């Protein structure tokens, strides 16, 4: 029977296999976030083939974590495996994003009503801080930072629903929407308009007004849909 070694100080020695497993998981997560970020921001363009060796070298992460990250992104609908050709970034499809918007409309409306009822003060403060940071990036016209703050804003709203299954679903839906966000929100003045919509949503959350939050979120998602229709 294997026994855990205990040194003189009485603390068990950590199993090196556990440390190794934790390190491998950290590399997988790092590869996943880095590749997803490049897909979302269109640094890896829709329809572009992803060579695992090149991705591994550019990220400075081994081939195995990169391969595992790509498998995860495939399950989440961000890349596709083409027989005898390899892995490609999933092409932009108007039908797909409209389906995502339809699902968001159902789930995010439900989530925002829960958030209006259940949001705690620290979550409201967090949302206010996100919008304060967004104001600075609007002045700088930094689309990438604004996109990341949009993601953070919607994730905090989802978590404020206190329904973790719903929050996880909304996070995945929103991640799949983000590169379309990046494509559709580059018209002059549009970042400021989205910021106003976010302020309307926050005002309803702050007042714990479920009907007002629903109306503000519904308008926000519909505007996203309309922008996509014009842009793609």
Characterization of the model:
- The chain is mainly alpha-helical.
- The protein folds into 2 domains: 16-89, Winged helix-like DNA-binding domain superfamily/Winged helix DNA-binding domain (Arc Repressor Mutant, subunit A, Orthogonal Bundle), CATH 1.10.10.10; 94-231, GntR ligand-binding domain-like (Four Helix Bundle (Hemerythrin (Met), subunit A), Up-down Bundle).
- Helices cover 73% and strands 4% of the residues.
- The chain has 9 helices and 3 strands, in the order αβααββαααααα.
- The protein has helices spanning 16-40, 52-59, 63-75, 94-118, 121-140, 143-160, 164-184, 190-206, 210-231, and strands spanning 49-50, 79-82, 86-89.
- A 3-stranded antiparallel beta sheet has the order 1-3-2.
- Strand 2 (79-82) and strand 3 form a beta hairpin.
- Helix 4 (94-118) crosses helix 7.
- The longest helix is centred in the N-terminal third of the chain and has 25 residues, at 16-40.
- It is globular.
- The N and C termini lie far apart (63 Å).
- The model is unreliable at 1-6 (pLDDT under 50).
């Amino acid at each position: 029977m294997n026994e855990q070694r205990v040194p003189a100080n009485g603390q068990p020695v950590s199993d090196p296999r556990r440390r190794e497993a934790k390190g491998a998981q950290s590399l997988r997560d790092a590869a996943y976030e880095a590749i997803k970020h490049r897909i979302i921001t269109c640094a890896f363009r829709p329809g572009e083939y992803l060579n695992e060796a090149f991705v591994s070298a550019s990220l400075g992460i081994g081939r195995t974590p990169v391969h595992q990250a790509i498998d995860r992104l495939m399950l989440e609908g961000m890349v596709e495996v083409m027989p005898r050709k390899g892995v490609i970034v999933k092409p932009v499809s108007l039908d797909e994003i409209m389906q995502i918007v339809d699902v968001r409309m159902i789930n995010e409306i439900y989530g925002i009503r829960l958030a209006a009822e259940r949001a705690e003060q620290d979550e409201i403060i967090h949302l206010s801080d996100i919008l304060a940071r967004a104001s600075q990036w609007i002045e700088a016209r930094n689309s990438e930072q604004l996109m990341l703050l949009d993601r953070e804003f919607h994730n905090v709203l989802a978590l404020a629903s206190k329904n973790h299954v719903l929050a996880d679903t909304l996070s995945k839906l929103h991640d799949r929407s983000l590169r379309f966000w990046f494509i559709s929100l580059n018209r002059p003045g549009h970042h400021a308009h989205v910021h106003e919509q976010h302020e309307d949503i926050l005002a309803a959350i702050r007042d714990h007004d479920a009907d007002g939050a629903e109306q503000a979120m519904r308008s926000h998602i519909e505007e996203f849909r309309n922008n996509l229709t014009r842009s793609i």
